[in-house]
Specification:
By secondary structure, this protein is mainly alpha-helical. It has helices at 2-16, 20-57, 64-78, 83-104, 110-141, 146-159, 161-171, 175-195, 199-203, 207-217, 221-228, 233-248, 250-262, 281-284, 287-300, 306-329, 335-339, 341-365. It has 18 helices and no strands.
């Protein structure tokens, strides 16, 4: 039977005109093209609205980056994409964004790193640690189960969905808790992106101060870009740097939680609980962070030709906007209502605490 099946493969290939080697790209295109095309369509609509703003008002009050999120969210709220669209949307939200982050490293020089200073790097570590403790305490005071409280704390303090997904198996969180936490990082993450720039005139923040604030408070890397690029390039560069340092904190946090969890009393409840969770180091330190740091190093060593800087920056911007469209298409604002008022209050208070602590750090470091 195996020999007969194998002998039929060349004939089938001749009938279809596709060999096994050439069918792989076609399968990839059929799988990913619909969702990618949808994200590009939302992106084009965002650029169109930005152009309309410029012609009507003389300036764009909402740039394409933010408009892509809003349009995508509106589409997702009115229409739930079928499975047919998911692969391309997920590819745009994740892979294209990761490529954009790597390319952004070419715009960051050693001078910007020096402006950050060792004090800021130490401050980021302190902010993450303190915010996790405070957020966890808020969740427990509001009656949340300790696993859900820890998911909310790590999601707010480190990197949103990525932190939640990485921490969940370590603390053996339930699926419902993970779903509730991720729903908030999606919906409230967009709210933070839209509202955070309003603090610039309200608190008289400089571009450097705002970049640090965004990097310390916004959930995910794409959302940092969405919150900072409309303000200034310096804010975007520094915000991304601060955010990536926060992401790197995921490794030590997971290691600590793994040690604490392995010593917990609930490990004796079942034989399967005795198995120690395996840490996926490639997820703790994602490839795009390594790529970002490599390009920063190349730029600092003047190994990136100056003539390529503008095209690289433009490409990173376009890919980021496409990713923002995908991000919006993945946001269902109705999920917040399903999570309950206690979770809502815990997340909101945690964000407020993180913002206040971040502002205290900026003042304490004397960042101008």
């Amino acid at each position: 039977m195996i020999e007969n099946a194998m002998s039929l493969q060349p004939e089938a290939s001749l009938l279809t005109g596709i060999t096994p080697a050439t069918s792989r790209p076609l399968v990839w295109l059929r799988t990913y093209t619909p969702g990618i095309a949808l994200c590009i369509a939302v992106t084009l609509a965002a650029f169109g609205l930005q152009l309309a703003e410029q012609r009507l008002f003389g300036r764009a009050w909402l740039e394409a980056l933010v408009l892509a999120i809003l349009i995508g969210t509106a589409v997702r709220s009115l229409w739930k994409p079928a499975l047919y669209w998911h692969a391309g949307i997920n590819f745009s939200a994740k892979t294209l964004l990761e490529i954009a982050v790597v390319l952004l490293g070419a715009s960051l020089s050693a001078q910007t790193l020096k402006a950050a200073g060792a004090g800021l790097l130490a401050g980021i570590v302190a902010v993450v640690a303190v915010t996790i403790l405070i957020s966890y305490g808020i969740g427990r005071l509001l009656g949340l189960h300790h696993r859900l409280a820890m998911l909310v704390a790590c999601g707010n303090s480190i990197c949103g969905n990525s932190a939640i997904a990485a921490v969940a198996p370590v603390i053996r969180a339930h699926g419902d808790d993970v779903a509730a936490s991720i729903a908030f990082t999606a919906v409230l993450g967009v709210i933070v992106v839209l509202g955070l720039p309003l603090l610039v005139p309200l608190l008289h923040l400089s571009n450097l101060q705002y970049g640090v604030l965004a990097g310390l408070t916004v959930y995910a890397v794409p959302q940092v870009l969405a919150a900072t690029i409309p303000v200034s390039a310096l804010s975007a560069h520094l915000g991304t740097l601060v955010k990536l340092v926060r992401v790197l904190m995921l490794g030590p946090v997971i290691l600590v939680l793994s040690i604490v969890s392995s010593r917990g009393a609930d490990l004796a409840t079942s034989p399967s609980a005795q198995k120690k969770p395996q840490l996926a180091w490639h997820k703790i330190v994602p490839w795009f962070i390594v790529g970002f740091l490599v390009l920063v190093g190349l730029r600092s060593a003047n190994l990136v030709p100056t003539v390529l800087l503008q095209p690289i920056s433009s490409m990173a911007n376009v890919l980021t906007i496409i990713s923002m469209a995908a991000l919006g298409l993945g946001v269902d604002v109705r999920m917040v209502a399903k999570a309950g008022p206690r979770v809502t209050l815990a997340v909101v208070l945690s964000i407020v605490a993180l913002t206040l602590i971040s502002l205290m750090l900026i003042r304490a470091l004397g960042l101008a």
